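>> Question from a student workshop board

For tomorrow's exercise we were told to take the sequence and the ligand below, predict the bound structure, and bring the output to class. My setup keeps failing. Could a helper post the expected result so I can at least see what it should look like? The ligand is magnesium ion.
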Amino acid sequence: MTSIILANSNVAFEQRVRRAFANSNGQLTRWPDEIVSSDTTLAVRELADAGAEIVGIGPNGDVALALDLARAFDADHPEIAVILVATPTKDFWEEALRARVHDVLNPDADDVEIRTVFQTALETSKRRRSNLLHEIGGAAPSGRVITLIAPKGGSGKTALATNLALALSYGDENVALVDLDLQFGDVAGAMNLHPENTIADLAGLSDNFATATLKVFLTAKSNSLFVLCAPESPAEGEEVSERSIERAVRLLADEFEFVVIDTSAGLHESTLTSIELSTDLVFVCDLSAAAVRATRKVIDALDRLGIDQQRRHFILNRADSKVGIDVADAAAVVGLPVAAMIPSARAVPLSMNHGVPVVESSPRSPVGKSFLATARLFSETPAKRSGWLPVRSRS
Ligand SMILES: Nc1ncnc2c1ncn2[C@@H]1O[C@H](COP(=O)(O)OP(=O)(O)OP(=O)(O)O)[C@@H](O)[C@H]1O
Ligand SMILES: [Mg+2]
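>> Workshop helper replied:
Here is what the output should look like for this input. Compare the format with yours to find the bug.
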């Protein structure tokens, strides 16, 4: 049962939250006393001991104290999602983001907004709670980060990334798809999305932007699939720093069960950043000798860099093409078993041109089934957690 505690609140606001949550299976409590003390650590401990999963602070009381409380929650109980109820001025927002609050709720918000903010806070809190439990047990957060890699352009990364992400979102889990082909990424086109914001918008943010900010930049494909689309122009992509990519991936992995990352051909700095944050690497390759050899070179390069913590998967695209190399040859050169094979099918380019991935338009076709089977490699096996070390400097 959900436990929401409202601190420094009042009866009128409590009733509005109660109304917004009518019919939901949760427990809403208003903290009886105003928190006025400077001992925020103690206040946080008491609220945590009372079983809070979400704490709403305000609209009464001093905003500076509310921010202090938020910081104390972040330090001592990061699994508890904090919502500040206050007029969101720009300065206040910036402070709130630094304090890693879940959201700032305008005291005049309507029922729908109140419900949405508390509902997403609940999901965040649940995920953080389970992540922390994993960490205590020696594992890292539950969000699984899957980066697709192909040294050769046109190997099928985008075809696979879009179908894989969509297929994973058909389960019970939430998926984020990141288009890290910063110059020419076209996940948006392949999914018929018209993003208002893109990954380029990260460029204008401070280094420790918050989840709430990042969420604004996502484009919804469905209720369970959200896409961080590539910039409109190659020039915009150049403005996006490695640090902001790293932060975005980490935040997404805190929020989503799966983060699928499409990359550009080659091994760019941004791809290396995403590789180091990943739990799983997917090497996508067709049966051309050049692509197979290049894949091997990338794997060797990662080994030399000591990037060997992630689970590696080798996926053959256009696996039925008769071009002289067979599946066994490819596996031998690459040095990995073939985890899945995607046949060649006209439906793939057609679907990308129409913006409807194959798993949506023809899930029962052989190629549709092969994408769905590829998704099961991830949904049915536990992640090997280890790609969560701080990204090393490569300079
Ligand atoms: N299994 C397949 N059968 C037929 N066509 C395919 C298949 N996979 C990919 N294609 C087509 O090959 C082209 C390249 O695929 P895709 O864009 O997915 O590759 P990519 O690795 O993302 O390329 P880039 O490196 O340029 O981003 C596209 O036109 C796509 O529709
Ligand atoms: Mg691509």
